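Model: You mentioned two targets. I'll fold them one after the other.
Researcher: Yes, keep them separate.
Model: Target one:
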Amino acid sequence: MKRALLPCCLITCATHAQIGVDRPVVLTATDPAERTVQGSAPALEADGLITLDGARSGRYHWGQASGTGMAIQLALTPPAEAYVNGMELRFVPTAPGMGPVSVNVDGLGARRIYRSDGLPVSAGLLVPGTVATLVYADTAFFTVARAPATCPDGFMPVNGQYCIQRNDTVNVSFFTATRWCNDRGARLCSYGEYIHACTMHQAELEGLFNDWEWIDDTSDHTHMADIAGRWVCHSISNLAMIESNNNYARVRCCLTLK
């Protein structure tokens, strides 16, 4: 009698198992309510079945961030197997990042992150406590967010169009000054932007009139670049665009608000 009950128990007892199917599964029930697959757990491997709940929640796009603001490490569940065009990731940075920022997803290798317009990451795009979204294309990731609508740390609003750095910074050549701003997702100020900020917000800007500051305007000669703000806001002169200690000026970047 006991032997007879054993097959029944095997038939009726609930079981849990992993099933591998190497070909399409076609559901043929006439009732739509019966053409379903239920009880699937979240995928743990790249080729696992994705549930509606998993797709709706976006958990497969979410990464756990670590590392630094300039070299981000991301861990996905399940882990990514390769970088592919259109790959979308979301995460919360652990530290602020700007300029030449990179991300390494599941040990696949570091890839640069750029703004959606192809420029280096602006200050304020990757900050702790704020969700960042990236999309992969060709050889790099691009931020989905636009340039910050508010000025990042170290900058102040001049009007609704742009921000300017509060203090003058490094003392370098014109070429280094341009790259220094670009690496921070910013740029050298035009003369109009500089004199407007200097005149209207003089009390809020630090380091004014301590030295010449580079602006993004060239002189009548193609080998010269303009400098401004030595003694008063409208002070203007020029220096040769060469790498020489005698042709250095301070850097104060501007950043366009979009």
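Model: Target two:
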Amino acid sequence: MLKKMLAIAAMLCTTASFGAVDVNQASAADLDGIKGIGPAKSTRILDERKKSPYKDWPDFIARVRGVGTTTASKYSAEGLTVNGVAYPVAKPVAAAPLPEKPAKPVRPQKSEAKTAAGNTTMPAKP
């Protein structure tokens, strides 16, 4: 019974640690908990936040050196938010369907046409 209680408590703590971290309210330790953000990057984020809070993801990307759209997408997938909003994931664009065209008939090459017609210039191999 005690083992089950400890297992449930451990699962709840693990689930709580994967919650969203808002960049405008996070501490350095919270930011370090995001995969890909180390002490140097969290210091840059906090220094820029001291100047003024981040308005949105484009503002965050523009102000923090070393963060682009790809990195922002990764941070968002790890639980980082700006004002409670995750980074918008671009939906993959579906390729336009190709028009249905009948396939061109395959014409035999000249050398194949000669052998098929019974080319007599080539001696038969024994």
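Researcher: Noted. Anything on target two?
Model: Confidence is low (pLDDT under 50) at residues 12-17.
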